[in-house]
Write a structure and sequence with these properties.
The protein is α/β, with parallel strands linked by helices. The protein is built from 10 helices and 10 strands. Helix 3 runs parallel beside helix 6. Bound molecules: adenosine-5'-triphosphate. The site of adenosine-5'-triphosphate has 13 residues, from strand 2 and helix 1. Pfam families: ABC_tran (PF00005).
Length: 239
Protein backbone atom coordinates (compact mmCIF):
# COMPACT_ATOMS: atom_id res chain seq x y z
CA UNK A 1 0.00 0.00 0.00
CA UNK A 2 0.90 3.65 -0.31
CA UNK A 3 1.83 4.12 3.32
CA UNK A 4 3.79 0.92 3.79
CA UNK A 5 6.36 1.50 1.05
CA UNK A 6 9.15 3.93 1.65
CA UNK A 7 10.40 3.86 -1.90
CA UNK A 8 8.37 3.00 -4.96
CA UNK A 9 10.01 2.67 -8.38
CA UNK A 10 7.77 2.11 -11.37
CA UNK A 11 8.64 1.46 -14.99
CA UNK A 12 11.97 3.21 -14.70
CA UNK A 13 13.98 3.56 -17.91
CA UNK A 14 17.48 5.03 -17.93
CA UNK A 15 19.62 5.49 -21.03
CA UNK A 16 23.18 6.53 -21.75
CA UNK A 17 22.75 7.67 -25.34
CA UNK A 18 22.06 4.46 -27.28
CA UNK A 19 22.64 2.23 -24.25
CA UNK A 20 19.42 1.30 -22.51
CA UNK A 21 20.78 0.59 -19.00
CA UNK A 22 17.48 0.17 -17.08
CA UNK A 23 14.37 -1.24 -18.76
CA UNK A 24 10.99 -0.85 -17.09
CA UNK A 25 12.40 -1.43 -13.63
CA UNK A 26 9.74 -1.60 -10.93
CA UNK A 27 10.46 -2.32 -7.30
CA UNK A 28 9.49 -1.24 -3.84
CA UNK A 29 11.33 -0.92 -0.57
CA UNK A 30 9.52 -1.10 2.74
CA UNK A 31 10.63 0.80 5.84
CA UNK A 32 13.18 -0.71 8.18
CA UNK A 33 14.21 -3.45 5.79
CA UNK A 34 17.39 -4.44 4.04
CA UNK A 35 16.70 -4.83 0.35
CA UNK A 36 19.38 -6.31 -1.88
CA UNK A 37 19.84 -5.76 -5.59
CA UNK A 38 22.08 -8.40 -7.08
CA UNK A 39 23.32 -8.75 -10.62
CA UNK A 40 26.39 -9.33 -12.76
CA UNK A 41 28.77 -6.64 -14.02
CA UNK A 42 26.86 -4.20 -16.18
CA UNK A 43 23.42 -5.35 -15.00
CA UNK A 44 22.52 -1.77 -14.07
CA UNK A 45 22.96 -1.74 -10.29
CA UNK A 46 25.00 1.48 -10.13
CA UNK A 47 22.72 3.11 -12.69
CA UNK A 48 19.74 2.35 -10.45
CA UNK A 49 21.48 3.70 -7.35
CA UNK A 50 22.64 6.88 -9.09
CA UNK A 51 19.18 7.49 -10.51
CA UNK A 52 17.57 7.07 -7.09
CA UNK A 53 20.10 9.54 -5.66
CA UNK A 54 19.22 12.18 -8.27
CA UNK A 55 22.56 11.92 -10.09
CA UNK A 56 21.06 10.55 -13.33
CA UNK A 57 17.82 11.63 -14.96
CA UNK A 58 15.51 8.82 -16.07
CA UNK A 59 14.21 8.69 -19.65
CA UNK A 60 10.83 7.67 -18.26
CA UNK A 61 9.20 6.17 -15.21
CA UNK A 62 8.52 7.25 -11.66
CA UNK A 63 10.27 7.21 -8.33
CA UNK A 64 8.33 8.18 -5.23
CA UNK A 65 9.53 8.28 -1.66
CA UNK A 66 7.07 8.44 1.23
CA UNK A 67 4.30 9.02 -1.29
CA UNK A 68 5.91 12.00 -3.05
CA UNK A 69 8.04 12.13 -6.23
CA UNK A 70 11.76 12.03 -5.60
CA UNK A 71 13.34 15.32 -6.67
CA UNK A 72 15.72 15.45 -9.62
CA UNK A 73 18.59 17.17 -7.80
CA UNK A 74 21.05 15.26 -5.66
CA UNK A 75 21.07 17.71 -2.74
CA UNK A 76 17.27 17.78 -2.66
CA UNK A 77 17.23 13.99 -2.54
CA UNK A 78 19.67 14.13 0.38
CA UNK A 79 17.45 16.69 2.10
CA UNK A 80 14.61 14.15 1.85
CA UNK A 81 16.72 11.69 3.83
CA UNK A 82 18.06 9.53 1.01
CA UNK A 83 21.84 9.14 0.95
CA UNK A 84 24.04 7.29 -1.55
CA UNK A 85 27.35 5.69 -0.60
CA UNK A 86 28.73 5.37 -4.12
CA UNK A 87 30.72 2.53 -5.62
CA UNK A 88 34.49 2.96 -5.26
CA UNK A 89 33.89 5.36 -2.39
CA UNK A 90 34.57 8.71 -4.10
CA UNK A 91 36.05 10.30 -1.00
CA UNK A 92 37.62 13.73 -0.97
CA UNK A 93 41.19 12.43 -1.23
CA UNK A 94 42.78 15.73 -0.18
CA UNK A 95 40.60 16.18 2.87
CA UNK A 96 41.24 14.45 6.17
CA UNK A 97 39.09 11.66 7.56
CA UNK A 98 37.36 14.09 9.90
CA UNK A 99 36.77 16.62 7.14
CA UNK A 100 35.23 13.89 4.99
CA UNK A 101 32.92 12.90 7.83
CA UNK A 102 31.88 16.52 8.36
CA UNK A 103 31.14 16.87 4.63
CA UNK A 104 28.53 14.17 5.15
CA UNK A 105 26.77 16.46 7.62
CA UNK A 106 26.87 19.59 5.44
CA UNK A 107 23.08 19.94 5.30
CA UNK A 108 22.80 19.81 9.09
CA UNK A 109 23.22 22.68 11.51
CA UNK A 110 22.76 20.86 14.81
CA UNK A 111 26.37 21.10 15.98
CA UNK A 112 25.82 19.09 19.15
CA UNK A 113 24.11 16.34 17.18
CA UNK A 114 26.97 16.31 14.66
CA UNK A 115 29.55 15.97 17.45
CA UNK A 116 27.55 13.14 19.00
CA UNK A 117 27.27 11.39 15.65
CA UNK A 118 31.03 11.68 15.07
CA UNK A 119 31.49 9.82 18.35
CA UNK A 120 29.05 7.16 17.14
CA UNK A 121 31.08 6.71 13.95
CA UNK A 122 34.28 6.19 15.97
CA UNK A 123 32.44 3.62 18.06
CA UNK A 124 31.33 1.87 14.87
CA UNK A 125 34.77 2.07 13.19
CA UNK A 126 37.41 2.55 15.93
CA UNK A 127 40.26 2.80 13.41
CA UNK A 128 38.80 6.09 12.16
CA UNK A 129 39.47 7.85 15.44
CA UNK A 130 43.16 7.03 15.06
CA UNK A 131 43.14 8.32 11.49
CA UNK A 132 41.18 11.56 11.93
CA UNK A 133 43.93 13.81 10.58
CA UNK A 134 45.09 11.49 7.82
CA UNK A 135 44.26 12.42 4.23
CA UNK A 136 41.52 10.13 2.97
CA UNK A 137 43.46 9.43 -0.24
CA UNK A 138 46.22 7.73 1.76
CA UNK A 139 43.94 5.29 3.62
CA UNK A 140 43.75 1.61 2.72
CA UNK A 141 40.82 0.46 0.61
CA UNK A 142 39.00 -0.96 3.61
CA UNK A 143 39.56 2.18 5.66
CA UNK A 144 38.25 4.29 2.77
CA UNK A 145 35.12 2.14 2.63
CA UNK A 146 34.56 2.73 6.35
CA UNK A 147 34.92 6.49 5.84
CA UNK A 148 32.49 6.37 2.92
CA UNK A 149 29.85 4.54 4.96
CA UNK A 150 30.42 6.77 7.99
CA UNK A 151 30.23 9.90 5.81
CA UNK A 152 26.89 8.67 4.49
CA UNK A 153 25.59 8.01 7.99
CA UNK A 154 26.61 11.52 9.07
CA UNK A 155 23.73 12.83 6.97
CA UNK A 156 21.37 10.84 9.23
CA UNK A 157 19.68 9.16 6.28
CA UNK A 158 16.31 7.48 6.55
CA UNK A 159 17.13 5.50 3.43
CA UNK A 160 20.74 4.50 2.80
CA UNK A 161 21.73 3.44 -0.72
CA UNK A 162 24.88 1.32 -0.57
CA UNK A 163 26.53 0.59 -3.91
CA UNK A 164 28.86 -2.42 -3.65
CA UNK A 165 30.15 -1.68 -0.15
CA UNK A 166 32.22 -4.88 -0.10
CA UNK A 167 34.02 -4.15 -3.39
CA UNK A 168 37.74 -4.75 -3.17
CA UNK A 169 37.74 -5.66 0.51
CA UNK A 170 39.48 -8.63 2.12
CA UNK A 171 37.09 -11.33 3.39
CA UNK A 172 37.43 -10.28 7.03
CA UNK A 173 36.56 -6.68 6.17
CA UNK A 174 33.65 -7.85 4.04
CA UNK A 175 32.32 -9.55 7.17
CA UNK A 176 32.77 -6.28 9.06
CA UNK A 177 30.90 -4.28 6.46
CA UNK A 178 27.99 -6.73 6.45
CA UNK A 179 27.89 -6.67 10.25
CA UNK A 180 27.82 -2.88 10.13
CA UNK A 181 24.93 -2.94 7.67
CA UNK A 182 22.96 -5.06 10.15
CA UNK A 183 23.74 -2.53 12.90
CA UNK A 184 22.60 0.36 10.72
CA UNK A 185 19.33 -1.49 10.13
CA UNK A 186 18.95 -2.07 13.87
CA UNK A 187 19.06 1.73 14.33
CA UNK A 188 15.98 2.02 12.15
CA UNK A 189 17.56 2.97 8.82
CA UNK A 190 16.16 1.44 5.64
CA UNK A 191 18.87 0.03 3.36
CA UNK A 192 18.99 -0.64 -0.36
CA UNK A 193 22.14 -2.59 -1.08
CA UNK A 194 23.64 -3.32 -4.50
CA UNK A 195 26.08 -6.23 -4.32
CA UNK A 196 27.98 -8.64 -6.50
CA UNK A 197 28.69 -10.61 -3.35
CA UNK A 198 25.34 -12.30 -3.91
CA UNK A 199 25.38 -14.97 -1.23
CA UNK A 200 26.13 -12.67 1.68
CA UNK A 201 23.75 -10.01 0.39
CA UNK A 202 20.86 -12.48 0.01
CA UNK A 203 21.58 -14.05 3.38
CA UNK A 204 21.19 -10.69 5.04
CA UNK A 205 18.41 -9.21 2.92
CA UNK A 206 14.76 -9.20 3.91
CA UNK A 207 13.81 -8.69 0.27
CA UNK A 208 15.83 -8.93 -2.90
CA UNK A 209 15.81 -8.26 -6.62
CA UNK A 210 17.87 -9.81 -9.37
CA UNK A 211 18.79 -7.37 -12.14
CA UNK A 212 19.83 -8.85 -15.47
CA UNK A 213 20.79 -6.61 -18.40
CA UNK A 214 18.73 -3.76 -17.01
CA UNK A 215 15.58 -5.72 -16.16
CA UNK A 216 14.21 -7.09 -12.91
CA UNK A 217 14.42 -10.83 -13.49
CA UNK A 218 13.36 -12.12 -10.07
CA UNK A 219 11.92 -10.73 -6.86
CA UNK A 220 11.49 -12.39 -3.50
CA UNK A 221 12.57 -12.75 0.09
CA UNK A 222 16.35 -13.08 0.38
CA UNK A 223 15.95 -16.62 1.68
CA UNK A 224 13.69 -17.54 -1.27
CA UNK A 225 16.21 -16.30 -3.80
CA UNK A 226 19.04 -18.24 -2.12
CA UNK A 227 16.92 -21.35 -2.68
CA UNK A 228 16.02 -20.48 -6.27
CA UNK A 229 17.67 -22.90 -8.75
CA UNK A 230 18.39 -20.17 -11.30
CA UNK A 231 19.96 -17.89 -8.70
CA UNK A 232 22.03 -20.76 -7.31
CA UNK A 233 23.40 -21.61 -10.72
CA UNK A 234 23.91 -18.12 -12.18
CA UNK A 235 24.76 -16.03 -9.12
CA UNK A 236 25.90 -18.31 -6.34
CA UNK A 237 27.92 -20.78 -8.40
CA UNK A 238 26.16 -23.72 -6.75
CA UNK A 239 24.97 -26.58 -8.94
P1 LIG B 1 29.17 -3.28 -12.06
O1 LIG B 1 28.81 -4.30 -11.06
O2 LIG B 1 30.17 -3.78 -13.07
O3 LIG B 1 29.52 -1.94 -11.48
P2 LIG B 1 26.45 -2.41 -12.64
O4 LIG B 1 25.43 -3.47 -12.45
O5 LIG B 1 26.61 -1.42 -11.57
O6 LIG B 1 27.86 -3.08 -12.98
P3 LIG B 1 26.08 -0.15 -14.39
O7 LIG B 1 27.36 0.50 -14.01
O8 LIG B 1 24.83 0.42 -13.90
O9 LIG B 1 26.12 -1.71 -14.02
O10 LIG B 1 26.03 -0.23 -15.99
C1 LIG B 1 24.88 -0.67 -16.70
C2 LIG B 1 25.14 -0.56 -18.19
O11 LIG B 1 25.24 0.81 -18.57
C3 LIG B 1 26.45 -1.19 -18.65
O12 LIG B 1 26.22 -1.81 -19.89
C4 LIG B 1 27.40 -0.03 -18.79
O13 LIG B 1 28.39 -0.27 -19.78
C5 LIG B 1 26.49 1.08 -19.19
N1 LIG B 1 26.98 2.39 -18.69
C6 LIG B 1 27.19 2.74 -17.40
N2 LIG B 1 27.62 4.01 -17.30
C7 LIG B 1 27.68 4.48 -18.56
C8 LIG B 1 28.06 5.73 -19.14
N3 LIG B 1 28.43 6.75 -18.38
N4 LIG B 1 28.01 5.83 -20.48
C9 LIG B 1 27.62 4.80 -21.27
N5 LIG B 1 27.25 3.60 -20.79
C10 LIG B 1 27.28 3.44 -19.46
Amino acid sequence: GRDTNVLEVSNLNVKYGQIHALRDVSLSVQPGRIVAVIGANGAGKSTLMMTLAGLLAPASGQVTYEGRPVPAKAYEVLARGICLVPERRRLYANLTVKENLLMGAFLRNDNDGIEADLEKMYALFPILRERLKQYAGTLSGGEQQMVAIARGLMSRPKLLLLDEPSLGLAPLLVENVFKTIREIKARGTTILLAEQNAFQALEMADDAFVLETGRVLLTGAGSDLIADPLVRKAYLGIK
